[in-house]
Design goal:
The protein has 11 helices and 18 strands. By secondary structure, it is an alpha+beta fold. Helix 4 crosses helix 6 and helix 9 runs parallel beside helix 10.
Length: 452
């Protein structure tokens, strides 16, 4: 046999062997390409598995590969969406958007199908190919985006109509709802744009930043005017002679519109609430205030929109008005009597109760006709394993009973609860006594029952 013939035989065997070996690992596993699934239309993911259940592992990893590629694309779109809708104007909103955008792939990615598998018998390795149809997946998200943007546009339009009618509550609520809808849509828009050939065209005029500006603009048009009740004097334990009256309107139209149904909060100089009143059909809100020491020399009337939270507090404050007033001493004073079996907590409780009474404007006098009897009970301690050793947790209840020594009658009571944690039961008990918080409004209502 000639050398040429031997070489031909060897070459043929090697070629055949390479064909067999090459056939064990599918071409798409090496290239991430498949003739049936062009990358212009599909995202391809490859996974492989060995061991007891190689098929399940390969399929799971193939789908994870698709998700990983989408995550990379979403990161690019996060910046694009942020710039389009100026999300960085509000750091909290932008941070929330980034967090939701980061997790949106895991929450929303569906439709990555396993279309082909192949087993490499020489290594007992299973390969799986997953594909995601870009247009189908993006189309499903686009339908959701369209519905959300349309809903936000309707809410925005209705808000403008409400403002023209003086319905501020309804207008602000609509704008807040529209902002929430869009804030939840934008992470999905980043996901859509990461997959789709053409980005989704939303409405920047309805973006979260733009809607926030609309809310601030609406609140800037609010005007609160004092109508009566300024420069009053009142004695602690009684009400001011007249109610504090304001009128709320919205400017910027041909003529000011009286607001209907808005809530006006009345508070002291420290911002603590004294009470609220709802504006009538003429935008008038009146509040009769109980005189207390914490009022000081002025009462502030401010629009109350709890749904806006703290975000728009400065806007609400800008339209507020101040009533001047004078607080006069009460005709009655109170003694404090501690009826507690725990000696260590006696002085603490006396200080807590006396401070609360003094703060609302009354005096503490040992020989007073009216006595505040302080009763204090605690539950059995609970043991807690802390870093420094075992700790005692004690839950306590305090009751303050108002008694009239002259008539020998009980006039009422208020209660407060607290919890203390310390290294000893006694220290936990004292701490729970020190941390007791007495509701000021409840205390005022109790003390005003004392009449000479």
């Amino acid at each position: 046999m000639s050398a040429r013939s031997i070489f031909a035989i060897i070459f043929g065997v090697l070629s055949f062997t390479n064909t067999i070996v090459g056939a064990q690992v599918p071409q798409w596993a090496l290239t991430h390409k498949h003739p049936n699934y062009p990358t212009q239309e599909f995202i391809l993911g490859v996974g492989y598995g060995t061991g007891e259940k190689p098929g399940e592992t390969a399929k799971r990893l193939a789908q994870s590969d698709v998700a990983a590629q989408v995550r990379v694309k979403v990161q690019t779109e996060i910046k694009n969406v942020q710039q389009t809708y100026e999300l960085n104007q509000n750091q909290e909103a932008y941070a929330d958007f980034k967090i939701k955008s980061t997790s949106i792939v895991d929450e929303e990615l569906t439709g990555a199908e396993i279309v082909e598998t192949s087993m490499d018998s020489s290594t007992s390795t299973m390969y799986a190919l997953a594909v995601l149809n870009k247009s189908r997946f993006a189309g499903a998200i686009a339908a959701e985006l369209m519905a959300g943007w349309n809903q936000a546009a309707e809410l925005h339009s209705a808000a403008q109509d409400f403002l023209k009618q003086g319905k501020l509550n309804e207008a602000v609520q609509n704008l807040l709802e529209a902002r929430t809808i869009i804030a939840n849509l934008l992470p999905k828009q980043a996901l859509h744009d990461a997959v789709a050939v053409t980005p989704y065209l939303g409405q920047p005029s309805l973006g979260p930043s733009a809607l926030t500006s609309s809310i601030r603009d609406a609140l800037s048009k609010v005007r609160i005017e004092k109508k009566s009740g300024d420069n009053q004097k009142g004695k602690i334990g009684e009400k001011f002679p007249e109610p504090f009256v304001v009128q709320v309107s919205i400017t910027g139209n041909e003529k000011p519109l009286h607001t209907v149904g808005v809530t006006v909060a009345f508070m002291n100089a420290s911002g603590e609430s004294l009470g609220e009143a709802i504006a009538d059909a003429n935008g008038v809100a009146a509040f009769s205030a109980q005189v207390r020491g914490s009022i000081g020399s002025q009462v502030r009337a401010r629009l109350s929109l709890p749904s806006t939270g703290r975000e728009f507090a400065s806007n609400l404050n800008s339209s507020s008005v101040l009533f001047r007033c004078a607080v006069l001493d009460a005709d009655v004073a109170f003694a404090v009597k501690i009826e507690v079996p725990f000696a260590g907590a006696n002085e603490v409780l006396r200080s807590v109760v006396s401070s609360a009474v003094t703060r609302v404007g009354y005096h503490i006098v040992d020989m007073s006709r009216f006595v505040l009897k302080v009763q204090f009970q605690s539950a059995p301690p609970t043991l807690i394993d802390g870093m420094g050793g075992t700790l005692f947790s004690v839950a306590s209840d305090m009751t303050i009973v108002l008694a009239d020594k002259v008539s020998n009658r009980l006039l009422g009571s208020v209660t407060a609860k607290s919890k203390g944690v310390a290294k000893t039961r006694e220290d936990a008990l004292v701490k729970s006594a020190r941390d007791l918080k007495i509701n000021e409004q409840d205390l005022v209502s109790l003390l005003e029952r004392a009449k000479n």
